[in-house]
Amino acid sequence: MTYVLDxxxxxxxxxxxxxxxMMEETFGIFEPGTRVMVPAIIIGELRSLAIQNGWGERKxxxxxxxxxxxxPFFDLTEDIVNRYAEIDAFSQGRLPGRRLDCSARNMGKxxxxxxxxxxxxxxxxxxxxxxxxxxxNRFLNVARFxxx
Length: 148
What we know:
By secondary structure, this protein is of the alpha/beta class. It has helices at about 5-15, 20-25, 40-50, 55-70, 80-90, 110-120; strands at about 1-5, 35-40, 70-75, 125, 140-145. The protein is globular, with a radius of gyration of 15 Å.
């Protein structure tokens, strides 16, 4: 199985939140044969949070070590760019031939890129928030994990 972990999921790891351990077990995140992709957008968000929150060298090293355990994804292909455009138009209810079943959704630009990467890679996006719910089973598979 191939997964993309949303930024909020990786943060549960650093916060030692009990939900991380349940996600790790549920999705087999570190199991052989499981591919976990971490798009550059997420790596950038995490590094920014590290700067903004004054993470020390040890915690930053732990972040870089975790990213290396997964598959960092830095490619921005034409397919991903086109999927970004489609998802953005769909989210605004303005994609010809694809009806949005709810009111327009203003997605953050980073979330649009994350969705485009996950969609293009045919990966399931694991997240703890509802930002991607309207895309589930339309552009990608979304596994929303509620924090407890």
